[in-house]
Amino acid sequence: MNQIKTIEWRNDSLILIDCRELPMKEEYLVCNNYNTLAMAIKNLAVRGAPAIGVSAAYGVVLASIEAKNRDKESFVDYIKKAILELSETRPTAVNLFWSLNRMDNKLNTLLSLNNEDIKKELLKEAHKIYNEDIKTNIKIGIYGNEVVDLNSNIITHCNAGALATAGYGTALGVIRAAHKDNKNIHVYVDETRPLLQGSRMTAWELLKEGIPSTLIADSMAAHAMKLNKIDMVIFGADRIATNGDVANKIGSYSLSIVAKEHNIPVYVAAPISTIDPNISSGDDIPIEIRDDREIIEFHGVQTAPNEINVYNPAFDITPSHLIAGIITEKGILRPPYKLSIKKALEF
Ligand code: MRU
Q1: Is residue 292 annotated as a catalytic residue, yes or no?
Q2: Among 3, 47, 168, 341, which has the minimal tally of Cβ within 10 Å of its Cβ?
Q3: How far is 100 from 103, CA to CA, in rounded Å?
């Protein structure tokens, strides 16, 4: 296991490594009420689909602690309000809704208990979601390692590592597993404009782990592929439609197109909970549009004129025909995805 603690429950609070400050500062944010956590999700102090889902589950526990002295009806109402507000923080990563749904269903089975016991049971469920996420990532790593050649140059986009999950990571989980298996791998890290999750977080994680890596600007990937410097692409996912279309960080789509042009396989690493059984095509996945300031400035330093019009979608859709396989904890799903995804959701 890696040493990075992204999310930790301690003394009735949720402690999050503040991803906005990395790699310059390793700071931790203490959330002791669900509003602070909701803000941390919105402003990307905690980010990455699984990490958002896991922390939101603890957010429901925070609400139960805040409301513990209320009468039962008002206590339950308060927790339900927290679930609703947490679900409104970010629209694309389905893990958020998956995990809040699970907490809501759990709450509905606990209504005959007293407030203290409801809180205890909700905390148990949140711990379960946390532990399952780590176990899932380790399995994804084991399956994914099967498609990594003994000598491999891998490119990854954004951060799908320990910092984006409860620990270990999905795409970086595969990379960790291959490195641990003594494969001779080297990782090209896309910096991932505009918020630099690649250069700030993925580069930081890989260096910490001693995995050979090289940072490039996003626009350099095609050139590196043309020069045969890259053998495979692996990235994570925020939501997967039942036809295999994948929503991931903006730039994943263009990376996949250039990979196709150079006959380089694109793998997506994600837990089954990232598949949305209610969405049949990527066209129906809601794409988050973020604040203009994220393009006009970085960390408070202006990089464009204030008056310029900005378009800032945080995610894009990679169509399933560009994807060689979806690495999950149940194995690698292959085309035709409608069929392999249906089977994976069934068993
Ligand atoms: O906006 P972010 O930083 O939350 O976006 C994160 C990504 O796009 C990740 O690649 C995705 O959530 C998978 S994380 C295992």
Answers
A1: no
A2: 3
A3: 5
